[in-house]
Amino acid sequence: MGPETLEAKQKAAIEEILKAYPEKAAKNREKHLGVGSPNDENQKTCGDVRSNKKTVPGVMSQRGCAYAGSKGVVWGPVKDMIHISHGPIGCGQYSRAGRRNYYIGVTGVDTFVTMNFCTDFQENNIVFGGDKKLGIAIDEIDSLFPLNNGITVQSECPIGLIGDDIGAVAKVKAKELHKTIVPVNCEGFRGVSQSLGHHIANDTVRDYIFEGDLSHIDTTDVTATEYDVAIIGDYNIGGDTWSSRILLEEMGLRVVAQWSGDATLKEMALTPKVKLNLLHCYRSMNYISRHMEKEFGIPWIEYNFFGPSQTIKSLRKIAAFFDESIQAKCEEVIAKYQPMIDAVIAKYKPRLEGKQVMLFVGGLRPRHVIGAYEDLGMEVIGTGYEFAHDDDYKRTKEEIFRSTVIYDDVNEYELEAFVKKLQPDLVASGIKEKYVFQKMGLPYRQMHSWDYSGPYHGYDGFAIFAQDMDLAINSPVWAHSKAPWEKEG
Amino acid sequence: MQEVEKIVNGKDLFKRPEYAEVLANKKQFESSMLAINPAKVEEIAEWTKSWDYREKNLAREAITVNPAKACQPLGAVMVALGFEGTMPYVHGSHGCVAYFRSYFTKHFKEPTPCVSDSMTEDAAVFGGLVNMKEGLKNCAAVYKPKMIAVSTTCMAEVIGDDLMAFITSAKEEDGGEFLPAEYPIPYAHTPSFVGSHITGYDNMMHGIMSQLTEGNKGETKQRINIIPGFETYIGSLRSVKSIVEAFGTDYIMLGDHSDQWDMPAGNYEMFQGGTKIEDAKDCINSSATISLQKYATSKTMKMVEKRWKHAGGFSNPIGLKGTDEFVMKLAELTGTEVPQKLKTERGRLVDAMQDSYPYMHGKKFAIWGDPDFLLGVVSFLLEMGAEPTHVLCHNAPNGWEAEMRALLDTSPAKDSLNVWAGKDLWAMRSLLFTEPVDFMIGNSYGKELMRDTGTPLIYIGFPIFDRHHLHRYSISGYDGALNLLTWITNKVLDQLDEDTKGIATTDYFFDLVR
Asked: What is the reported pTM?
């Protein structure tokens, strides 16, 4: 008998893992676990997994909520607006400044991203309603932070349960203050994960930015050009959008807006005039991209700026949309960075080649970062999403290189079991899981926050990515786990 | 472009000219005022430093800006993780649990197990009974905890789910396959719109102590229960235990998460250490209970004192006086003399305080945090002759303000010392601009205050996300007070060097010996 194949090992791991569950939970989880093979025509989604369904209760899912998707992801990074966490104190506190949405501005004066504004609901607000308090809160904000360009109201769970009408409050206050005020019903119990929060937030962008009164924002000084594009679905984590933007500008395009890392209201207002929307995080902003296509006739394309192979492919795909001058400049950009990238790979590939990786992230990364690892000779053998839909898992088929175990909405128990059975050299996921694997002596990188490093997008970002992966895998600290007296026997 | 021999991350990358150009170019599309009119930003920034702004700022009644408190279930999760093999279980939406776990994990740099029963829209309409039945069963099957401690999110509280009935019916339906009748599943209602994380601590501790001891009242044992409260310093739990152990008395620490959030590397076990379930069931039969945090255990201690008739009461072992009182209380309860070990430790602390006092004496401090933490640390500042100019407690319960005022009134500088109950950290920003201090003591949220006001921040409190390992130390007991003294004095000395390092201008005072 030959050595056990990776695929066989992966399948056996799934079978073994399901045994721990009671019958109903096992039946449910079975549908969310699978083994994907590259470009497999027979599979509907990668690994044929089911997704975007209710989480099994009691199993320690890593998922967040709709509020997290709206306040934490889509709206929160818009820097010249103030985002109120409307409800009790916790949600805003736990999510404050954790996502590393970088921005330039004087915090507390003209920009507000890392701050926490909350209506701090008390029992009487639950009993008698909180609309009045919200109205006063908006007035107080406008008097103490006069340079804000607008306010969003991010609803926490109780709002939708006690029958408050935040839409009415927003309407009155927007008129009074002559500012954009956006009510967002992103209560945490809505939907099954962050995902619905993205969608709800996208819809409010449509209703209150594109269809709202933006007369307080002067956009007349910007004249549209043939080369205007917007970056959609990049949250500027650790500066990602900046290291993407530079490449687009170098190839002759004009980036008019960033959604929503380091974004301002004016940039969002300018977007309906761009020639092309460039969509990085499909999951969280495909809705508004489709809307702009339908309403303003702006085409959108997905791209991937993780790792040189995908970056080059994406740059050419973007350039193909424009004229030959852009295409020529695109080739110049690629040629300009190639020696640096060759040197990065020459330096790090020998140190990382053949190392196996397991991923579990959200948004676009479970598929988008695979290429970056593979460019370094590393092998991704497992991946999964916290809150993806079928379309994400379909796209994943094109990104995997080998038999890959796919786990949707994986919980703490399953991820730990998969790692123990498949023995990767690196686990790349979030803060909640980080120390579980480090305790086991496994190198680990947070792939939500870039572990306080980054950016990872673009060519400059890839160099940092390579250096960070080397740092993690080849650090001497992992060898210390075992005491010298344990080494024998 | 990156240089391969010296790859830099965002700290230095964006300082490069090509990125300076990108950022400057972006401004034409921006609506933030810095891009449009920097002078206006400067003007408003100056205004935020004024007394006029302060008056408006402190008069806020509806919007909280940069709070220094969290919500109830966070405290409930901490309690649960202090018991042997116990899974914290939050009845509600899983988004909350993701937040609790990441919040604690960012502070402790340790895993924080906790499950929820993932209630969604249909549960909001029909109640969360189905989620509870499945959730408890799955949790028991997959993680095999010895106990499951159930708390609630605001969603479950608004719809009014009945935990006791739900747990009973979950056990009945399961028929003992995963949830035997005797399986301990204590619970507490922990609405986020009442009190703060310390209220949730109190409610969950009360739930576990009252429900686990039901029907267990027997003969009283010479034994002391210790309830630490919402204690985020792992070293403090160990210091307290070492003091109690020095008296040679039997004791139970109720809610001891010191091993759970300080796991050695090597392998991962989900649960480590904690109060034995057996001990928790028997704690009603101890002769005394001491709570180390009055405001985090008021409901629990009311039960212990009124219904259980335990001796003990409150004792806050932070600082010299606080530790002295704790030690004397133990001496009284055990009927023994103060052990020599503690006498020596006290002597060493006092010796150190007398070595360092010139640097803390008369220095003005702003400090914020939980009510009991503040009483302890402010007492220590006063013991050193320091002046706690602004003492701010966002989650101050009734009675705290008067107690803190009375403490500050023992200082000769009392007229310039202020108590700020129920205020947030944006209020603190105004206080720091209008009535400046020399140093701040607080958690990571002080970082922006440090940047904006230039006041040096001494990291003591919770949460601390951006400094490592401080939570491993103690701030309680004589050894803990020595840590406080060391951190504060050395920050004063660091600042003294910072202020005097000007070459040929101020460095005559840049002394080698301090």
From this structure: 0.98
